[in-house]
Specification:
The radius of gyration is 19 Å and the shape is elongated. It is mainly α and about 140 residues long. The chain has helices spanning about 1-15, 20-50, 55-70, 70-90, 95-125, and strands at about 130, 135.
């Protein structure tokens, strides 16, 4: 629902409805530099914190770690910048959300692997197996 409003209602007002290079680039840059890093991805981490019952501070800490240590945004940009160029430059308006949903299936696989890698690193920091069996948590 939010993407429908952002892509098909807000972006045309801000950048126009054309499919010329300047308009497409403006939409892609806005999406990849502002909408996603400051709205979409943080919301995903907040939702996960609600589901798994950890704090908002922890949610944003995990987001920061995944961005800085696990290359979350670089991987996002590697996939989504070309996809969004197609979305705004080629895909008809009425098919944009379906197209993005299709690609999102593959993005969720990548995103899950990044989050799992971050979780594994956090678990290793919390628990060191000194004797290979016993977990000692320093506190």
């Amino acid at each position: 629902m939010a993407q429908q409003v952002i892509y098909n209602e807000i972006f045309p007002v801000l950048f126009g409805q054309g499919q010329d290079a300047e308009t497409v680039l403006s939409k892609v840059l806005c999406d990849s530099m502002f909408v996603t890093p400051f709205m979409c991805l943080p919301v995903a981490y907040v939702v996960k914190s609600v589901i798994f019952q950890y704090s908002l501070v922890e949610a944003f800490s995990r987001y920061k770690d995944d961005v800085l240590k696990n290359g979350l945004l670089v991987k996002y940009w590697s996939l989504w910048v070309p996809v969004q160029c197609l979305t705004f430059g080629v895909v008809p308006v009425h098919l944009r959300i379906a197209f993005v949903a299709f690609v999102s299936f593959f993005w969720l696989i990548i995103f899950s692997s990044i989050a799992a890698k971050g979780q594994k690193e956090r678990d290793e920091e919390l628990c060191s197996l000194e004797d290979g069996v016993t977990c000692h948590i320093d506190g």
